[in-house]
Amino acid sequence: MADLQDDIPTTTEVGRDDGLPDGDGAAPASLDPAYPPSAQQAGELLERAHALLAAHPVADGYSGLPWALRHLPWYDLELGEAAIDTDVPRLREGHVAALFWSLHLPEEPSGERAVTTTLEQLDLVRMVVDSHPEGLRLARTAGQVIDAHNCGRVAVVPGPAPAAALDDSLGLLRILHTLGLRVLTLADTAWAGTSGLTRFGEEVVREMNRLGVLADVSGATPDTVERTIALSKTPVLCSRSAARALRPHPANLPDELLAALGRAKGLCMVPLTAEQTGPTVPDVADHLDHIRDVAGPDCVGLSGTYDSGAVHPRDLADASRYPHLIAELLRRGWSETELSLLTWGNVQRVLRSADFVARATQLRREASTAKITELDAS
């Protein structure tokens, strides 16, 4: 079996000695006189973190698990699977109650191939959930996420998917939504590219609002981010974005966009990857601190980005490690209210808002039949 799994990225952690830059030169949290805490303090903080997460579990904004599972000849997520970063035992240990399963691929196809691969990914998500009924449950709405948690299951929310999966068709958007899609990434298409949203792109956002599909603008151009925030009647997501002021990664957001996202009550979900946030738990916490301060505590969330091929910070190697991050935030003085919003409350708010707007919009707006050739004709 090992030979068949050579293509699966193994769990990787890094430390401060990996050569990655520290960002803008600010003193890292590890230089804080109170860092590192003593063994007794660390144990007490971790115990408090587990207690808090038992009441306010994690809603993880991005998991690459569907693609990783395609490469495994056999797996049992309920028993546990060492070849990947995520399984039911580790989700329970990390107090993860909801997981957004990405439909992105390592090398995004285009055209008909993008549609086919996205449909295949959605089909795989359904099969995986159906074959693990004691641990997983498919969910679309905020209510279904809560129901799954109350039944002791991890809620699986399909998405984000690449915008190329629409193949410039609003009909395909509706089909994907019917099959369970809940989040769409608006980037790298003719209607959501370097020049921002075109007229057809704006119609895509309106139809997403009508359906209850959330807009993800991680990796989108600033013009696309700004126009989507201004146009969307539901909160906008950044499924994998941290603070560019601390780490100049292209998917990270500058402070002006973070502030705009905060004013619109959107949600920036910070990825637990060394490339975007840094090689240690304090580095990740620095980004969370910064986004909380710039956008507000209502607008920050978590995105494990596990099973995506990314390198993770030390002590955050897999989905079981969330208590270590929460312990660090407790050490920094985050309140229980702020932490409950970070882990669970903000995602629930965004999902509830999308559900409400969709119901209201469907009463006054018919399904759009707009064509890109009509709206974007030069």
Automatic annotation (TrEMBL):
SUPFAM superfamilies, per the entry: Metallo-dependent hydrolases
PANTHER family linked to this entry: DIPEPTIDASE, MICROSOMAL DIPEPTIDASE
PROSITE patterns linked: RENAL_DIPEPTIDASE_2 (PS51365)
Region described as Disordered: spans on this chain: 1-38
InterPro entries cross-referenced by the UniProt entry: Metal_Hydrolase (IPR032466), Pept_M19 (IPR008257)
UniProt-recorded name of the protein: Membrane dipeptidase (Peptidase family M19)
